[in-house]
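Support request, please re-run this one:
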Amino acid sequence: MLAKKGLGYPEAVPVYISSQILHLRQLHIVLIFFTFLSAHATVAQSVASRFLKDGFQALENAQYDKCRQLLNQVRASLPRDESSSTRDSSDLLEADLWYEEGKINEAQALYYKLLEKTDDPVFRAQLFNNIGACHYRQGDYFAALQQHLQSLTLRRQIYQGEHPDLADSYNNIGNCHFVLGDLSKALEYHLQALAMRQQLYQEDHLDVSISLMNTGNCYFQIGQLTEALQLHEAALEMREGLFGREHPRTASVLNALAKDHVAFGRFDRATDLLQEALQIRVQHFGVDAWQLFKSYESLGDLYAQMAVDEEAIRSYRMARKIFLKHQTAAHPLNGYLLDKIGLSYQSLQLFAEARLRHEAAAELLSQFSNGGHPHLSVVYNHLGNTYVKEGAFDKALDQYRLGLNFSLRRKNSNPVVEATLENNIGLCMMEKKRWAAAEEYFIAALEKKKNHPAYLK
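Re-run finished. Output below.
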């Protein structure tokens, strides 16, 4: 992986946050309702059921306006006092649509309402899954993981052998471990999901492409870049076959592929892919939709790698502006963006501006549940780097030690981050002419690097 140009001390591997696609297993649940309707339905319910089926399919294809129209037709076809599985199913579709449109709080409230009304284990497992996805999008990854584990427990009781719902749970649990920094568990769950989905679907399928994407993201994060590129290219080929090139689900793969090409130094190719993904999203969702956040963030990452830092800051600010229209300022992704803006200010030698952003990011991420967000140690490293560039080695040392101690306290520590911090502490010790202490930290960093894929090359 290329180091960011202009930064004197080594940076920890940047965390790639995969967006958790809520690919819902609603169609088979709707079929349960349809089975009930076939025997007991009124004419109004039968009409509504057809609209529902088309509505879920429109949602699957990211046709949100069409989905809303069909949902309105469902509601119009039912009596106002209707209380039935059809009404519950329409509420489910409404919640799923809100989720996809970025109205996470509204979706979550409706999922909880439906959970209180049902005893059906299949439906409850799905609702736990959906509530977990909402927590994920809100940045509460520990709560998301608990909901997905609860869903998985139910699903293992319901299904014997391979089932699409089990694969969904493995995928979503993998995503939680990914953003919580436990990459070995993330890869384990994503490989399980991928293998199960490839066995279940003998042809191209959205679920398989999601697993290809997420498994590729894991390989990217641990430094196995060739494997990441191969899986993302396979995902792109599958998405193009399913949806065509100019579709938002294809755009998400273009974003991932661009990161791969940046890592290999192919900046022109990465630029083309990111601009294409941005245009697809603008045409499909409009200029202020939350889906554009990832495009602008990725463009910022590209410009930062190319050391075009003014453009990087503009892109990150646009990403943050869009993000904060749809999420609270306390969301950890806001901390990521502030940290990235700080790095670009570092590259411009504007260290006071950089520190303001890194300190704001550290304050935000320190409020995260379970003692702080995993990325906090990386932010401390960045703060230390600003002090080093100003020659304030004692202050730098304080930040590096904060980062290292925080990482070591975590259950699932990141050896790449820790090796970076130990190396930087060693460099500070050299500046202070404490040679024995410097050697001790360099050896500790080397031991962590020996068998880690990010350093094998």
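Residues 18 and 187 are 13 Å apart (CA to CA). Confidence is low (pLDDT under 50) at residues 1-40.
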